[in-house]
Write a structure and sequence with these properties.
Helices cover about 25% and strands about 25% of the residues. It has an eight-stranded mixed sheet with strand order 6-5-4-7-3-1-2-8, sandwiched between helices. The protein has a five-stranded parallel sheet with strand order 10-9-11-12-13. It is of the alpha/beta class and about 280 residues long. The structure holds flavin-adenine dinucleotide. The site of flavin-adenine dinucleotide has 26 residues, from helix 5, helix 6, strand 12 and helix 7.
Length: about 280
């Protein structure tokens, strides 16, 4: 039997985890946990409800965190971001989506999370609500949104104008800011940019930065390293502006402009100003 932890009964990644659970065969029970988020307390509730069953969770930050606590409490191995299970063998995604690892689980019970978007969502059906024990462990009591100075935040923006090393300097971002202002967009950047101190780390997109999923991602002077793509592959459309026609970013782009961003970005801004009057 398998117990599935749902973050919420309508959460897409959780419903994908349900599909992974069904693929293991046998009966599946779905649970959510009531109350404020507290990973070790949620894990304790899941451990108690699971009895001796396998446990599957969503491949979200919370899913992976709670399952890690479940594994620690049960002293069992845990496989995160799984795409396929064949008996005690499985495939899982590692290194920000750049590696598919074949692994073997050396345990009687499986503790897994489903790789995001590797499974179609299932229908939740009956969901049991568990109460987390109040064990004094840290809890999230409040979410405070960062002060974006009235600008749209990177994670929520419908359009992101992002700059890489090709922008050349902190001052070079002024033309990206201008374009972003017209599009009601947020400004993002690559790690080279944050490492150089041109922009704060909160603006970084990628594996070790923010993961964005806007309608449009405009990558200016960004080469398209896998660690950067890991943060913007959720974008519906990607427009790449790069001087190098061989740049990797073009393999991911829906629209490509080959040329100097210092000419192209102001030209786009000027055209937009004409259209907007
Ligand atoms: C563990 C790890 C985690 C990482 N995490 C991240 C991450 O979260 N986010 C991230 O971004 N990177 C991350 N990196 C770094 C990543 O590997 C790349 O080094 C980085 O993304 C490259 O940044 P870039 O594209 O700005 O620079 P470059 O790779 O140097 O590319 C600059 C591009 O600009 C173009 N260009 C230059 N001048 C112009 C111009 N005038 N007009 C138009 N185009 C021009 C060039 O042709 C080139 O393609 C990580 C690396 C590691 C090892």
């Amino acid at each position: 039997m398998t117990l599935v932890l749902l973050e919420r009964a309508d959460d897409e990644l959780s419903l994908q985890a349900l599909t992974l659970a069904h693929s293991l065969g046998g009966e599946v029970r779905a649970v959510t946990v009531d109350g404020p988020y507290a990973p070790s307390a949620w894990a304790a509730a899941v451990v108690e409800a699971a009895g001796g069953d396998d446990v599957v969770g969503p491949g979200s930050d919370r899913g992976n965190e709670v399952l890690a606590h479940v594994a620690a409490q049960l002293d069992l191995p845990f496989a995160a971001n799984v795409t396929d299970v064949r008996g005690d063998e499985l495939t899982r995604i590692r290194w920000g989506g750049t590696l598919l690892e074949e692994a073997r689980l050396h345990a009687e019970r499986k503790l897994l999370t489903a790789a995001p978007f590797a499974f179609a969502p299932a229908t939740a059906g009956d969901v049991t609500v568990l109460s987390a024990p109040s064990d004094g462990s840290p809890r999230v009591v409040e979410h405070v949104a960062p002060d974006t100075g009235g600008k749209v935040s990177l994670a929520d923006a419908k359009v992101v104008v992002s700059g890489g090393r090709g922008v050349g300097s902190a001052e070079g971002f002024a033309i990206l800011e201008e374009l972003a202002g017209l599009l009601d967009a947020a400004v993002g950047c690559s790690r080279v940019v944050t490492s150089a101190g041109w922009r704060p780390h909160t603006d970084q997109v990628g594996q070790t930065g923010t993961k964005v999923s806007p309608d449009l991602y405009i990558a200016c002077g960004i080469s398209g390293a896998t660690q950067h793509i890991a943060g913007c592959k959720g974008a519906k459309k990607l427009l790449a502006i790069n001087a190098d026609r061989e740049a990797t970013i073009f393999a991911h782009a829906d629209y490509a402009v080959i040329g100097d961003l210092h000419e192209i970005v102001p030209a786009i801004t000027a055209e937009l100003r004409k259209v907007k009057g």
